[in-house]
């Protein structure tokens, strides 16, 4: 790299900037473009609801607190260091009984913001997602396996078998078995 090449020009080759600020300066009879560095600083506590057991961040006025350069290469490392956390109580829409559930979300990388990763941090939603995945697997097996399809049709149509299966799995619900669909209803 030539000595007189600016950092901005080096970065142009490596990673083109999104913001370029230049201005024209007259030097003698010639106009020269001068570049201005674009520097942005953010002062904020981005940790959300810090974990009470974790070591607290230094005060903003503390001399130990320094600017942290954040870019796409070190973003996850910086997030891991900040340890953003969100703790709240939200309405329980699953049970629909006006109760509230405690939710604690921890973000250590950008991937933690993906819907599936958020769901995996909330126990009732994680269980629903797992049940949904098991049902999707079962559905794909039924499509390709006629014996399994006919066996499940028999179990669904036979109330006694359904009750026995419910007792064996620990999910017996008397009201659900009273309304079990017939084979004709499930095929339509």
Automatic annotation (TrEMBL):
Region (Disordered): 166-188
Pfam families: T6SS_VipA (PF05591)
UniProt biased composition (Low complexity): 177-188
NCBIfam families: VI_chp_5
Name of the protein in question: Type VI secretion system contractile sheath small subunit
Organism expressing this protein natively: Paludisphaera borealis
